[in-house]
Amino acid sequence: MLTLLLLFLEFFKIGLFAIGGGLATLPFLMQLAVTHPDWLTLRDITNMIAVSESTPGPIGINMATFVGNSVGSGMFGTVWGGMLGGLVATLGEVAPSIIIILIVARVLEAFQDNKYVKRAFYGLRATVIALIAYAAYQVYRVALFDGPNVKMLEVVLFAVFMFVMLKFKNVHPIVWIAFAAAFGILFKLPSLP
Amino acid sequence: MNQSKTSLVTLFATFAKIGVMTFGGGYAMLPMLQDEIVNRKHWCSEENLLDYFAVGQCTPGIIAINTATFIGYKTRGNIGGIVATLGMVFPSLVIISVVYHVLEAFQSNIYVQYALSGIQVAVAALISCSVIKLAKKSLVDAPAVLLAVAVLASLVAFGLSPIIFILVGIAFGLTVSGVKERKKHGADTSDQGGSSC
């Protein structure tokens, strides 16, 4: 029980101090491997990143669930025990977000017509668009250039095909995800680094 | 928006759906949010979505969670924020808990690896399509375009922390649009609908 409380608090701390998305929690998790070697080891971290990036859901949440599973499985030795640990770690990680965002949202509502808030958002929007564009650039770079046997032609053709289709037809993103998974299997795209 | 009309079950289910479809970090969630929240459910506009994303970026925590809490709050108040967030993390909890126990089989399966490489291409294309859509709406004038291009170029060249650029963006917004407003009064930016890429 105490371990679960400690798990919650450790992830609460991570949720509170990691600014800038899921991978920003990584340094904290590495610290955790040092302070709680019975929870996870540095070797587990490689597995954790690989699994978190290759399953659906936000990476930060996936990593928290993974560590929680490791702790819970160690304590109870069952799938359900692992899940309980995962739940505790995840709730710990999202709790600060919920508290902070609910406050920030209220404050922003109160000041939404304030001219300084409006001006700040004008600059913020342009910056965030650049940050999102950069995220796309990074994913493209990995898909196109990382590893010795990337299939550049197939990848480019598929991306172009998607772009043309997206321009004319409103297809649900999940259809694209499923289609792309089939494409990956069909053309035997090399595994991710 | 249509407050009180959206049921908490719908809110939970919508974010659980987005959680299942999001491969990668918070940015990969953007195309799904646009499709579900803006185009289908009409819970907010594209500009609002970008603002929520911006706030999610510069507050502590995971961007995807921050954005989910924000949209949930806007739709159904405090309880909405909590429900949307729980919906968002629910698929992760189930999937990771299962995968954790079949780790070896999952990681060494070659077809899983092929499929993930394919999905990555789709994610990149979907995100870039979202960016184009948002840029058309939110880069309202030349200074904004310049700022976005400059930030993107510095990110590609130096890869610094997003926090630095967010601070720069806020400072830029405060000074540049302040100057603009003093030059000419009144001119308001209008927003229109439309949703093709």
Can you characterise this structure?
The complex is a heterodimer of chains A (193) and B (197). Chain A is mainly alpha-helical. Chain A folds into two domains: 2-107, no CATH class; 115-186, no CATH class. Chain A has helices spanning 2-17, 26-35, 42-54, 59-76, 79-110, 115-145, 152-168, 173-186. In chain A, helix 3 packs across helix 4. The longest helix of chain A is centred in the middle third of the chain and has 32 residues, at 79-110. Chain B is mainly alpha-helical. Chain B is built from eight helices and no strands. In chain B, helix 1 packs across helix 2 (26-40) and helix 1 (8-21) packs across helix 4 (63-101). The longest helix of chain B is centred in the middle third of the chain and has 39 residues, at 63-101. At the A-B interface, helix 1, helix 3, helix 4, helix 5 and helix 6 of A face helix 1, helix 2, helix 3, helix 4 and helix 5 of B.
Q: If helices are DSSP runs of H or I spanning 4 or more residues, what is the number of helices of chain B?
A: 8
Proportion in β-strands of chain A: under 5%
Terminal Cα span of chain A: 38 Å
From the alpha-carbon coordinates, what is the Rg of chain B to the nearest angstrom? Answer: 19 Å
Condensed summary:
The complex is a heterodimer of chains A (193) and B (197). Chain A is built from 8 helices and no strands. With 193 residues, chain A is mainly α.
Keywords:
heterodimer; A: 193 residues; mainly alpha; 2 domains; 8 helices; B: 197 residues; disordered C terminus
